Amino acid sequence: MSSRRTLGACVHATRRIVCLLVAVAAVSGCAADRQANMGQAPEYGPQTPVSQKLKKLPVPAQPVSVGVYDFPDMTGQRKPNDKFAEYSRAVTQGGRAYLVNALTTAADGQWFNVVERTGLDSLLQERRLIRGTRDQYQGNNGSLPPMHFAGVMLEGGVISYNANTLTGGFGAKFLGIGGNTEYRQDMVTVACRVVSVRTGEVLASVTTTKTIYSVLAEASVFRFVSVDELLEVETGVTQNEPPQLAVRQAIQLAVYSLVLEGAVKGLWEFKNPDAATELIDKYEQIRKSPESAPDLIEDGVAAAGASQQARDDGSGSEDYGNNPSPTLASGPQAQG
């Protein structure tokens, strides 16, 4: 009898040791995977669906010279936290960099000639340094070519960030086994307008909104596997859409909309009007029914890209980057 009890105790102890080793191995494996993920090589910024639409825009009849001084965060919002006060901003402070990147992405950089205005003081200081050095060592040959002017300026910023506009979840358990899901929806809004340098008139203005989703999924097991043994397992995963990526997509959509809005108002023209006809028609439908925007934009860009490729004569668009005079667009309909 005693030998049986001893054997049973050994089996019981062995089973506990095996369970402990399995748990330790699982935790160690998760930690190893986490360390491996933390050691990933740096990557280029992700290509968003809106950036692909910007690249596929038909080329303009003449590039538009544009200047961007600032694109600030006007919300003043802090990161939402139900447990303690957050001092970090909820919205990225690099909206200006995202706007410049979106402008240089439109039609692979053929739509806008972006002039530097963010670091204007440093740029002017460097030019003075070059002129002074050349005057000292080369006499009167120290002149520099004139800087490019901007025909229009882009103003605006991130005007709204609303947290927890929609929250919810679902969960169920049966005999100690179950799971639950929770979700949250935030919303960021961006406003952008085109201002004529010559007259100060606001030529076009658009507002775009991007929804930010956060999802939590959890599963758990809580039950007795024997009289004196309890099994408890918990796992979960959370996926949060980065707010800065949402801001970037909203800015890209604002630039995309400004290009079409300016074409509708006659501020500038496409090099091949036929390539943009269907695209503008889709944009007009979007303005009338915003809920159909994703499908209409996708169809319009695809059609415009096919038409542009079929009709393009192969000659590059005229570049006015070396002209220091303020330029908005070519043709008799140009304004500003």
Helix content: 25-40%
Strand order, main sheet: write it out.
2-1-3-4-5-6
In total, the number of strands is: 6
Taken in chain order, the helices and strands follow as: HHEHEHEEEEHHH
Largest sheet: 6 strands, mixed
Q: Which segments are poorly predicted (pLDDT under 50) over 5 or more consecutive residues?
A: 6-11, 300-336
Q: Taking all residues together, what is the mean pLDDT?
A: 75
Strand content: 25-35%
Structural class, by secondary structure, is: alpha/beta
Q: Over all CA atoms, what is the radius of gyration?
A: 30 Å
General shape: elongated
The DSSP helix count reads 7
Describe the model.
- The protein has helices at 2-38, 49-55, 95-105, 120-138, 243-265, 273-288, 293-311; strands spanning 64-67, 112-115, 152-174, 177-196, 202-226, 229-240.
- The protein has 336 residues and is an alpha/beta fold.
- It has a domain at 1-32.
- The chain has a six-stranded mixed β-sheet.
- α3 (95-105) crosses α5.
- The longest helix is centred in the N-terminal third of the chain and has 37 residues, at 2-38.
- Mean pLDDT is 75; it is low at 6-11 and 300-336.
Characteristics:
about 325 residues; alpha/beta; six-stranded mixed sheet; 7 helices; 6 strands; elongated; disordered C terminus
